[in-house]
Every structure is written in structure tokens, then in C-alpha cells.
Amino acid sequence: MKKILFFSSLFILMLTISATKEKSHKKFFEDFKKSSSKYFSPSLRRSGTEDRYAFAKESSIEPGTSTVTFMIDPEDPAGAGRGPEIVSKKFTHFGTYSARLKIPDVTKVQPNAGIVVGYFTYHMEADPGLSEIDWEWLVADPEIIYIGTWTGQRGKMRRIGRTLNMAKGTIFSTSYRERPGETRTALEGLQNQPVTIPAIEGYNASKQFYTYGFDWYPDEIRWWIIHPVNADTVVLWDYKGSRVGIPQNHTHYRLNFWYTKDWPVEGNPNSIEKPLNRYELECDWMSYTPTKKK
User: Fold this and answer.
1) Omega within 30 of 0 (cis) for the link into 275
2) pLDDT in tens, the chain (294 residues)
3) DSSP for 29-91?
4) Domain spanning 28-290 has what CATH number?
5) Exposed/middle/buried for 67, CB within 10 Å: 0-12, 13-18, 19+?
6) What's phi and psi for 255, nearest 5 deg?
7) Buried/exposed 104-134: b ≥16 CB within 10 Å, e otherwise
8) Ranges of each domain in the chain
9) 238 burial via Cβ count (<10 Å: 0-12, 13-18, 19+)
């Protein structure tokens, strides 16, 4: 009987390990040149909105570049996930993530549009909680970038974040906060590196494609951008020195596009208007390479 129980337990363990492997992506590069994706699925909380995505669509500014294009709908309700989004079909975890994308240019037609572009990971579990790493842009000011993470369980969320102007090389803030309360604490030392960043002359996330990425390890996250002229890797934030704020559990890889009515861009409190047009977000490619800490 003990032998039977042992082999039964071993068989169940092998099935569990196999299932876990099947649910995790290996290295991939998605160039969106086909009418659907091998690695991502479209996701919408509204029905009848299949026209919100266009796979294998030629870029509006780069002839010959094939993209996945998202169209926001002026009738979208406010809130993350209420607009078009693609989500990885399997889990991802520690590794290097990168994407080449262009956000919509609204500054002349609707300078106060309240629209968010999110390039990120997200997955919530009861324990240990949320695994989220973000790149975000508020289209009202395409020079400003928001990077950071959310971790913790529902009702006990924790945020580490950095806000910066890439065109000017200005870091507005690098901080930690918790919900509820939202009291911000400035980060220092190893959690605040580099303390200055070089400007990328003419940076405007809506005027051309840029390559963005992050390296995620158990005890470090590094956000970076590829300089469009010299191809150098420009590090925007190398967070380490504490595991607080670093997700440890697996996640899903995502790109989304949504309306916010209560998050204005830095320096413009009026930028929460409902979108008036079907603005377009273009993504050339997304990649993922699982790695282990060196």
C-alpha cells in the first residue's frame, strides 16, 4: 500500500510539474506580421468591439513596418482594462522584456485627453498577491514616462515608482507608497539609482517608435530605453537593495490602451478628458527571454 501511495504521489507530482511547464512561455519574439498572434490573445471587457484591434497592419509612419494597432473607442468606460488589450497566452516570470511601440499623437487635436498606454505585466493571486511591472504613458504629454511596480495582496497594495521627463532628463520623483493612505516616501541609496538620467534630445513617444524594456530578477529590476541615434542602452531606473516592491510570482505579459478620468499627467491637472476620437496605439514587436539572476 505504501508503495502504491508513493508512486501515485510521484505521478501526481510529475503531472503538476508538466502542467506548470506547459503554462509558461519560453523565449519568444512576436513581430505581429500575421492576422493573429501565437503568444498573445486580445482581451476586452466590452462585447461587439472586435474592430478595436488590427494585426499585421502597416504602420502609419513607417512604411513596411507591420504592427498590432489598438483603436480606443470614445464610448469606452473609464478604467484600466476597459479598452483594447493583449495578454500573453501563458505565464512569464523573471527575465528580459522589450517592445518597440509608438503612442498616439493627440497634443494638437485634444491636448487634455485622458488616455493611458500601458506596457506591463500583471497577475493577481491570493498569496503572494499581485505581480505587476509597468511602463506607462499619459498621451497628453508624450515626453513623460511612468515606471514602477505593484505588489501585495488586495487591500494591502504597495507601489514603487519613478516619474521622469525623457526629453529633458528630469526625474520628478522616485518613491514608495501603500494603499490605503497613499503616503509617499522618497527612495534613497540603491533604491534610487541612477540619481540622474541623460536626456534623449527630441524624445516624444508619439512621434516615432522607441524600444523600451526591463530586466526582472528576484532582487533587482532595471528599466531601460534604446537610444534612437547611437543604440546605447539608457538605464532609467535600476532598483535594488531591497526586495520590497519586486514581484516574486509569475505573471502575464500585456499591452493596453484605456481612458482615465482621474489620473492627469504630471503638470497638467486638466488632462482627464474623455477621448473624442479613435486614436491609435501602434506596436511593432514584443519579446521575452526568461533568465536567471547572474
Assistant:
1) no
2) 333 333 333 333 333 333 344 488 899 999 999 999 999 999 866 545 567 889 999 999 999 999 999 999 998 899 998 899 999 999 999 999 999 999 999 999 999 999 999 999 999 998 889 999 999 999 999 999 999 999 999 888 999 999 999 999 999 999 999 976 678 999 999 999 999 999 999 999 999 999 999 999 999 999 999 999 999 999 999 999 999 999 999 999 999 999 999 999 999 999 999 999 999 999 999 999 998 655
3) EE---SSS-SSEEEE-SSSS-GGGEEEEEEPSSSTT-EEEEEE--TTPPSSTTSS-EEEESSB
4) 2.60.120.200
5) buried
6) -145, 130
7) bbbbeebeebbbbbbbbbbbeeeeebbbbbb
8) 28-290
9) middle
Element holding 12 (H helix, E strand): helix 2-22
How far apart, in Å, are the Cα atoms of 178 and each of 210, 236, 267? 31, 23, 23
Residue bearing cell 474623455: 274
Predicted TM-score (pTM) of this structure: 0.90
